[in-house]
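Entry for the shared binder. Reason: the reviewer on the internal report wants the predicted structure included alongside the sequence.
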Amino acid sequence: MPSETAHQVSTKRKLITKPYRAMVGAMLVLIFSSQNMQTVAITLIIGTPVKAPLILIIVGALSCGLGVGTLIARRDRKRLIILTNQKRENAP
């Protein structure tokens, strides 16, 4: 009977710990959101202040940040691909 390789053992360990990581993450999100349920007023550039739960404002800011970061990363990746292709074409 062949013994398991180190890669097979690490893969099994990852599969076993994945659900526990998700549960811990979900519990942290629940604790964080329960601590930030108070209503706050946000004054935008124009208009009247908007009242919303703090957790919604935090999640909205996180979503905007992730969206902008994703767009910038895509743009940079496209630029890198274009520059790499140009260097290959110009190489002797």
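Summary line for the report: Helices lie at 6-35, 54-90.
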